Amino acid sequence: MPKIPATLIIDDGACFNLMHWLHIEEAQPLQIPPAFTQRFADLCQRYGVKGKYSVPPMPSGAGRIDERLSYVPAEVLDTFLRVVRDEIAPSFDITPEILTHQAALDLASGRLLHLYEDEWFRTATVAQMTDYLSLSFRILRNVGLNPTGVTSPWDTGIHQEPQYAEAIARAYYRVTRRTFCWYFLHCLGGSAPRHPWVSWQDPQRKLTVVSVPALTDDAFWNTQTQSTEAASRQVALDNVDQLLTRDGRQGRLRELYDGGFPLIILTHWQSLFSRGWATGLDGLGETFARIQRTFGDNVKWMRFGDLARTALRPVPSTPRSNRD
User: Which of 53, 157, 178, 257 could form a disulfide with 92 if both were Cys (CB 3.0 to 4.6 A apart)?
Assistant: First the structure.
């Protein structure tokens, strides 16, 4: 019987904490030290984990990562990018999380708008979205990160998804001359799971775009909203059970495995950083250990782009036995 694919989604990867600007009432720390990024990379290498890692090219509008960022020393940015290039990218597909993940950028003036990207994309034309996405791809390539897809901040693009998918394809082809691309937009952690699906195609130019959904919720999101490290650590450990219990018999990952669906696990960079306590990262490590102990060689970790390509071939229809 074929192995069940597994992949890890990391959103909001940056050398500072995007939650610092989004939730100023929580006094979230700003910088995420390079040692944390290295620790994440080491953990994934230990368990052979692969997936998708997004990097906003202009995080929170604080500057371009191919130039300089406000509030962040140049050496911190440089070290972050080096670890992503050398330690994370070999196992993770890299994507832009559009441009800023917050205020939309006016391309003509170079100024931030009083409008978030998800709102701007509601009414943008295909041509406007194509230009916007092209810049996000170019910035990542300028720092040696070769994107293979797109990550949507919040529900960016969902209100005119066919046009959004077309813009992704055209922007990606414009910058890379590649005809296959994918995006992450849909979160189905509390819904019926789906395999990746072809979202848009241009048969004439042979352009194909695939949508790959998350099939779990972010089990570690609330580690960053606790007032003490002890409380944050308890939340992390409790929520691992939502993904997979210690005995491996229950949890969302057990359901996905038994149903023959890929284990597409969602979390966020700030969820793992957990206000500097890294309790979410510890919880993620426990999740990896349980997956390995429960499923062993019956699970195959895959890069996100490789999983996206499974949408181009028939999906197995036979669920796996609970005994597997």
Answer: 53
Listing DSSP states for 254-279 in one string gives: HHHHHHT--EEEEEEHHHHHGGGT-H
Helices (H), 185-265: 229-243, 252-259
- Looking at the predicted structure, is the pLDDT value of residue 166 above 50? yes
3-state secondary structure of 232: helix
Domains and CATH numbers, the chain: 4-312 (3.20.20.370)
CA distances, 64 to each of 14, 56, 114, 290, 305 (Å)? 12, 9, 19, 39, 25
Q: pTM above 0.70? A: yes
pLDDT tens, position by position, 123-146: 999 999 999 999 999 999 999 999
Whole-number pLDDT of residue 322? 42
Mean pLDDT of the 11-28 span: 85
* Separation between Cα atoms, residue 251 and residue 98, nearest integer Å: 32
- The alpha carbon of 59 is separated from its chain's Cα centroid by a whole number of angstroms, namely 14
The type of residue at 300 is K
